[in-house]
Amino acid sequence: MTNGVPSAASSGSASPAVIVLGLDDGGKAHASWFGDNDTGLAEKAAGMMGMAALPVDADDLRQLAGRLPRGKVFESGRAFVPFVKRDLYEAIATHLPAGYKFPVRVADDRPPAAKSKKANATGAPESGPKRPEPSRPTDWSKIEIGSLVLATEGAYQGWFEAQVVKISPEGVYTLRWRDWLDMPVFTRRLIHIALLHPEHTD
């Protein structure tokens, strides 16, 4: 799609040269591969994001990389590393050196609201007003600003949660990735949006 998240630092056909993998603050597994042209940027982005950069230097790793979506590096220095199934992540993680320790993030990726919470005398965050849960429409006609839907970057890239931030009179939906708040907003037509299952939970 031409109206998705901005292009990566390089594009075009390539073969996996490095896999970036790691767990987010919620314990969800992320992994994607990057080509030769993006190796240096991917390794730097991995360090910024607290993830590992694993060279694809063996046949079994190449096979595993073939099951991953291709990652993208942004001008901000960070990378788009989608969710993957936990068993696939663990199969890749076994190739990390024994005793490997993931790098510490160089920046706090929590949303501003989470950063601003003050700790009380016990060290626990003070409770404050809770942000309203986004609506999860079960019909396309019920999508509104604030709704949580699914979007993808294209074939074989997977579908991920995104929140509607604007709807134009022409039927163009402006979205932002729910789990990648530092990435730019993007647009989709209704035919390129999917709905979450009614029983879906985080």
Can you tell me about this structure?
With about 200 residues, the chain is α+β, with helices and mostly antiparallel strands. It contains 4 helices and 9 strands. A 4-stranded antiparallel beta sheet has the order 6-7-8-9, with no helix packed on it. The model is unreliable at about 1-10 and about 110-130 (pLDDT under 50).
Question: Spans of 5+ residues with little confidence (pLDDT < 50)?
Answer: 1-12, 108-129
Distance between the termini: 27 Å
Arrangement of strands in the largest sheet: 6-7-8-9
Q: Using only CA atoms, what is the Rg?
A: 18 Å
Biggest sheet: strands, sense, closure?
4 strands, antiparallel
Classify the beta-strand content into a percent band.
Answer: 15-25%
* Total helical elements: 4
Mean pLDDT equals: 78
SSE topology string: EEHEHEEHHEEEE
User: What structural class do you assign from the helix and strand content?
Assistant: alpha+beta
Question: Would you spell out the secondary-structure blueprint of this structure?
Answer:
Elements lengths: L17 E6 L5 E6 L4 H11 L2 E4 L3 H7 L6 E2 L5 E2 L5 H8 L18 H4 L32 E5 L6 E9 L4 E6 L8 E4 L13
Antiparallel strand pairs: 1-2, 1-3, 4-5, 6-7, 7-8, 8-9
Jot down its keywords.
202 residues; disordered N terminus; alpha+beta; four-stranded antiparallel beta sheet; three-stranded antiparallel beta sheet; single chain; 15% helix; elongated
Quick recap:
The protein is α+β, with helices and mostly antiparallel strands. Helices cover 15% and strands 22% of the residues. It is built from 4 helices and 9 strands; from the N terminus they run ββαβαββααββββ.
